[in-house]
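Narrative of activities, Objective 1.

The group set out to show that a structural description can be obtained from nothing but a protein's sequence at a throughput compatible with the screening campaign. Below is one input-output pair from the validation batch, recorded exactly as produced.
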Amino acid sequence: FVMDIFDNSDLEYLVDDFHGFSDSEDDEPFGEFDHKSEADSDFEDDLDPTQESDTSALEARNGKDIQGIPWERLNYSRDQYRYKRLQQYKNFEILFRSRQDLDKECLQVEKGKHFYDFQFNTRLVKSTIAHFQLRNLLWATTKHDVYFMKNYSLMHWSSLLQRSKEVLNVAKPIVPTMKQPGLLSQSISRVQISTMAVKDDLIVAGGFQGELICKRINEPGVAFCTVLTSVENDITNSVDIYNAPSGSLRVITANNDCTVRVLDATNFAFLNSFTFDWSVNNVTASPDGKLVAVLGDSPECLLADAGSGKVIHALEGHLDYSFSSAWHPNGQILATGNQDTTCRLWDVRNLSKSLKVLKGNMGAIRALRFASDGRFLAMAEPADFVHVFDTEAGYSQCQEIDMFGEIAGISFSPDTEALFVGVADRTYGSLLEFSRKRNHLYLDSIF
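Output recorded for this entry:
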């Protein structure tokens, strides 16, 4: 299954290098995309895209496909195509360990719940993905404002104005505006953005050659940018923005050079760096800023002290490499996503074994997000499925968002009222918007 991710044929992708691990090169490429050049969508739409670029909630209720896929004109039904996808999709694995006991560990989940209603889909927004294992490329700052990557452009989408605009072009040379003694900033250009994070008015992005870019939303230009590592291909795999226990804002990065780095988010001075035994794919700080989850090219996930980098506990249970994590707002629950197709939940008060194991339908768990009120956990596979779990039901109840296409990122709005899903595909690339289902009953207004 080849979804088109890239509009720029001159981008240099490293995906093929990573798929050197795969032993199924003769098979159909029906899994996490393993192509280097521009590829086709499975769905070719010969209609004028301006005529059918959007789908509203009303149109969806009246039977229109939420992505605008014209199933009535295709040679197969949606159900037939879904069946084919599930049968033929190949999950990308690096460690070929036995998975036979994994299903026994997984929580039995009641699907079919309805926590978020489909609100809108716009094909005016086309996300792109630079690296098939890294999918943190979509962030909502309000229920109307979403930031995403499209090739060399950092874009902003306003769901109110139904308009997108370029916030930053990373193909052009970027000269940082903040100049101060001792600051290790440098000009960079033609950055392939591999990961990003947005908090308050700060956007932080990482690149394929170890770049780090920090931009304030309300100020022109880029405040700070640098190259974190001197070794080629030491990708910046993840970035996180968090408040330290002192209250000051921090930026933390994870790179292929096995190093986690901490910067001050006000003046971008380097504060600390911690080295581990393997490439670090993901790092996230706990809500109180005291702990960091460190995940990478190891089945083990580490819990470390955010100040010293000292490992407090190794979390054991995953069977492959991990690429995503998220903290419950109460700081007690950590979720880790792995290429073994599961998300494990850990209680920091008892780390001897995982609290629960949640399973996807067909692929690795590439993105995880808790809603800011802690009520829901969104879990994205590489393609086709986003699962929304009710934490108050012990994660045993789930809404399954079923669509087609590579998932570039997922994000709840800070007020939890909206959930956005970025889809990367040449024809059906889009931004899916869901709104939180509220039961505004008359009785509620009395009490």
